[in-house]
């Protein structure tokens, strides 16, 4: 972005260039400039050259075009600097020890049941996101992200639907965090064989599905045939047992029990479904508060590390034996570990925080291979049980190389 050069800025009548004559230049055939009231000279066209020169202070069409182009370039440059770039930059974020505190609050607080102090670290890892609906970045920040090997840059529409607002992003992240925390408690209690109950409520009925016109949003599923439903696994098993035969589904609707006859539809080989979306409500035997002091952290990816932290706090034995673990992964009530985003940035964040070992979801292994920071031992896990087993073996002095690895 350079200012344009004004070709008309050189003084006329001094250079002796063709078509210009200085005062009193007496060359044959050259017009003599006429003096102006302000002491300057105007130069008239020299017919022999076919083109004249403008008077001092007046710009040629070429000069005016260059001036306009320069101004436009400056405006475009300013716009590039000031207007937000349509990109999102993901960078390594901070880690949080689920066995520790954030601010003046324990990240995991348990009331109504004996809990135990825990040494060592079970870090959840995060990704710092710049750009998108929540924050604006400049084109220079986007370029900086491209040049930084620790960062990754995405077009905004790759991560967010058009029209998504920052409030919607915050609400979605908060809801995902709350859901992951409840699932983490359920998974931890399942692993420790501590009983709890859960209710499955119909959130939506899929159009054209088996339950359309029979079940309604807000219905709580109580039984399938003679089987009482106390969780998603019980429901799945009950539906698979009846196969494609009509069966009675008992629900609680507006405070009263209703019975509807539904014919489950086949989904995959040997599996059947009602065609409903479910929301789960848990009833735990004691209170577990998670995520204290982490108001700016959202999303579902901390579920597995929350579950490990809860297990450590509920057992008298030291799970980590003072060692430093980090990891990431979603969790469901059954203890299944799912994939997350930003795994490479989380590996870097864990390494920067001093972690010795990292628990990575098996579904993210393709992104892990070739991007493990030096000195960080990575173990592949698919379930909470596998993650717990890995922590126990590593805490006892085992090697990450002897445990499941990401190979592709």
UniProtKB/TrEMBL annotation:
GO molecular function, one term: ATP-dependent peptidase activity
Bilayer-crossing regions: 65-89
Disordered, as annotated region: 1-61
Enzyme Commission (EC) number: 3.4.21.53
Protein known as: endopeptidase La
Location of the active site: 301, 346
SUPFAM superfamilies reported for this sequence: PDZ domain-like, Ribosomal protein S5 domain 2-like
UniProt xrefs under Pfam families: Lon_C
Gene3D superfamilies xref list: 2.30.42.10, 3.30.230.10
């Amino acid at each position: 972005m350079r200012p344009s050069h004004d070709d008309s800025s050189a003084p006329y009548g001094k250079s002796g260039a063709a078509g210009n004559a200085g005062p009193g230049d007496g060359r044959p055939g050259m017009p003599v400039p006429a003096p102006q009231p302000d002491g300057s000279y105007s130069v008239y066209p020299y017919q022999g050259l076919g083109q004249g020169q403008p008077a001092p202070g007046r710009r040629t069409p070429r000069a005016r075009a260059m001036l306009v182009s320069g101004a436009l370039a400056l405006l475009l440059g300013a716009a590039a600097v000031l207007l937000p770039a349509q990109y999102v930059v993901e960078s390594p974020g901070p880690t949080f020890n689920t066995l520790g505190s954030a601010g003046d609050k324990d990240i995991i607080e348990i009331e109504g049941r004996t809990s135990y102090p825990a040494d060592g670290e079970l870090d959840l890892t995060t990704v710092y996101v710049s750009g998108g609906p929540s924050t604006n970045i400049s084109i220079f920040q986007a370029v900086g992200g491209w040049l930084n090997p620790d960062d990754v840059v995405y077009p905004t529409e790759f991560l967010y639907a058009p029209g998504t607002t920052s409030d919607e992003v915050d609400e979605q992240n908060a809801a995902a965090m709350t859901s992951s925390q409840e699932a983490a408690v359920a998974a931890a209690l399942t692993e420790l064989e501590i009983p709890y109950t859960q209710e499955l409520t119909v959130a939506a009925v899929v159009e054209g599905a088996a339950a359309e016109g029979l079940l309604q949003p807000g219905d709580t599923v109580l039984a399938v045939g003679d089987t009482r439903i106390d969780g998603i696994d019980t429901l799945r098993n009950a539906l698979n047992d009846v196969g494609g035969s009509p069966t009675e589904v008992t629900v609680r609707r507006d405070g009263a029990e209703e019975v509807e006859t539904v014919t489950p539809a086949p989904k995959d080989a040997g599996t059947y479904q009602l065609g409903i979306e479910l929301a789960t409500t848990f009833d735990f035997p004691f209170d577990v508060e998670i995520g204290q002091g982490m108001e700016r952290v959202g999303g579902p990816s901390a579920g597995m590390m929350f579950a490990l932290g809860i297990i450590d706090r509920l057992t008298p034995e030291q799970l980590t034996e003072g060692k430093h673990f980090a990891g990431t992964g979603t969790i469901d009530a059954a203890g299944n570990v799912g994939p997350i985003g930003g795994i490479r940035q989380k590996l870097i964040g864990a390494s920067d925080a001093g972690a010795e070992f990292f628990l990575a979801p098996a579904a993210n292994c393709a992104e892990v291979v070739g991007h493990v920071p030096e000195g960080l031992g990575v173990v592949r896990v698919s379930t909470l049980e596998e993650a717990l087993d890995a922590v126990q073996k590593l805490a006892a002095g085992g090697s990450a190389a002897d445990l499941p690895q990401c190979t592709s």
